[in-house]
Amino acid sequence: MWLDIQGQGVSAIRRMINEVGADRLMFGSDFPFYPIATLLARLLVATERDRKTRRMILRENARRFWGV
Known about the structure:
Strand order of the largest sheet: 1-2
Order of helices and strands: EHEHH
Strand content: 5-15%
Radius of gyration: 11 Å
Structural class: mainly alpha
Helix content: 40-55%
Number of domains: 1
Number of helices: 3
Largest sheet: 2 strands, parallel
């Protein structure tokens, strides 16, 4: 199971990381409905002390999912 964190607030993102695990979360957007900067800022705040988790959600999980 994979989850997209788009549209979630900082506390919800942190909860998802703790309950689901960073290895099953991906960054997505509802652009143009929501400014992508706002969505990215929420993730950056939620992962400010965990660069590995940030990297996983922003890049590594998608690479693994798509096999690239």
